Amino acid sequence: MPSLRRFQLSVLAILVVFLPSQARQVTDSVKIHFRQAVDRIEPWPGDNFAKLDSLRAELGAHRGTLRVVGAASPEGGVNYNRGLSERRALAVTRYLELPDSAADYTFLGRDWRGLREQVLADPAVPYRDDVLALLDEVTADYTTMEPDHSGYLRRLRALHGGVPYGYLYRREFPDLRATRVYLQWPLVVPFEAAQPPVEWPVAMAGRPSAPAHVALPVEKAGKPVYWALKTNLLYDALALPTVGAEVYLGRGWSLSGDWTYGWWDNDHSHRYWRAYGGNLGVRRWLGSRAAAKPLTGHHVGAFAGAITYDFEFGGEGVMGGLPHRTLWDRCNFVCGVEYGYSAPIARRLNLDFVIGVGYIGGKYIKYRPYGNGYEWMSTHRLHWFGPVKAEVSLVWLLGRDNYNTKGGRR
Predict the structure, then answer these.
(1) Most buried among 71, 86, 153, 333, by the most CB within 10 A?
(2) For residue 343, which of 299, 301, 386, 389 has the smallest C-alpha distance?
(3) What is residue 220's predicted lDDT score, i.e. its pLDDT?
(4) How far apart are CA 100 and CA 104, in angstroms?
């Protein structure tokens, strides 16, 4: 009997050495999360460094091999996300100080299958049945590479006015921006007890240096870019032309600025209609519309700026600031908070309604015409708390992927 036991153990050892890769024990070891459009490993979101350090120790103890699956959330261009998922996968092996050839890779690009699984697990998704029907169509079309020829992302964004997309963008997409690392090592139990083979996602599998590309029409290449030019129609109607710009910074934040310049006069009749100045502000975009389409929907913000003016109609005039002084002396200063709503009206056009309250301070003078000149009558200090800003701005949406769908919806 002892001889038979030794023989069985010898056969088992030989089987363990020569078992195919499918007969290896597999664990979903770690999931490393990334921020939107980022391909470097950071401590947040998730305890990434602790996970990878633990994996490094496990690799050394078990002499295992790695399967690395890089992925991205669906927003953004197809080619951009394919490259992003590859860079995220390689970032993991490089952190572990392994050569790129030390692991088997899969680069998912947009992780549609992962999104479908998350929607199945989340009963709170708005219009969930319609979302699942679309995702079923996407995944049924998923063969050797992510499909991009049917505009699935555009359809998801337009579904029910963008409400489901806004929810998915906030709640589901962050978990898709990840690299999954599967640790494999030879089984130390008889072959009959081995776990069934794991079905890896099918998409650009192989070494990073030579992925198997399939020629498909590209929906859009590159990372989305959202910015806009605008003009305040209220000021324009008052013959004070205004031009502004806004840049979306990501994660619901944008930076905006505008400049007003109107310098009209009729000197022989002592009529002046003058103002120039500008402000800078930061905005936080809120609600489902803003999540589905940046620079659209509700927003709140803060702003600060400076302005000078000269208004006179043949009689007593008012001039902001002190003339013939430094630039700062010639201005009044304004700061405040605002609320607004930007509504789509065409494919590349929005109307942005804004009201702001705050403070205006500085000095101003009163004067009157006197002969061929003007008489300085008095100097006053301005302290105003209340409404300081009003806009009905026509907004021209610019940048890659920055457009509304037909009817003004995204």
Answers:
(1) 71
(2) 299
(3) 41
(4) 9
Q: How far is it, in rounded angstroms, from Cα 388 to Cα 337?
A: 9
Widest Cα–Cα separation across the chain: 128
Identify the residue whose tokens are 């952190």: 95
21 phi, psi to nearest 5 deg: -60, -30
The residues facing 308 across adjacent strands are 276
* DSSP states along 285-326: EEHHHHHHSTT-EEEEEEEEEEEEEEEEESS-EEEES-TTS-
User: Of 82, 85, 104, 102, nearest to 94 (Cα)?
Assistant: 102
**What pLDDT does residue 229 have?**
97
What would the 3-class secondary structure string for 158-202 be?
HHHHHHHHHHHHHHCHHHHCEEEEEEEEECCCCHHHCCCCCCCCC
Write the DSSP symbol of residue 23.
G
397, 366 contact by CB (below 8 A): no
State the pairing for strand pair 24-33/178-186. antiparallel
Q: Judge whether 364 and 319 are in contact, CB under 8 Å.
A: yes
Task: Record the tokens describing residue 34, joined without a space.
Answer: 């990334």
* Angle, in degrees to the nearest 10, between helices 163-171 and 128-140: 80
Is there a contact between 224 and 76 (Cβ–Cβ < 8 Å)? yes
- Report CA-CA distances (Å) from 67 to 100, 155, 185, 334, 387: 12, 33, 11, 58, 60
- Which helix (H) or strand (E) segment is 378 a member of? strand 373-398
Q: What phi-psi label fits residue 193: left (phi over 0), alpha (psi between -120 and 50 degrees) or beta?
A: alpha
| Whether the predicted pLDDT of 206 surpasses 60 | no
Say whether 6 sits in a helix, a strand or coil: helix
pLDDT digits (tens, 9 = 90+) for 163-174: 898 889 888 999
- Return the number of other C-beta atoms located less than 10 Å from residue 134's C-beta: 18
Report the mean per-residue pLDDT for the chain: 79
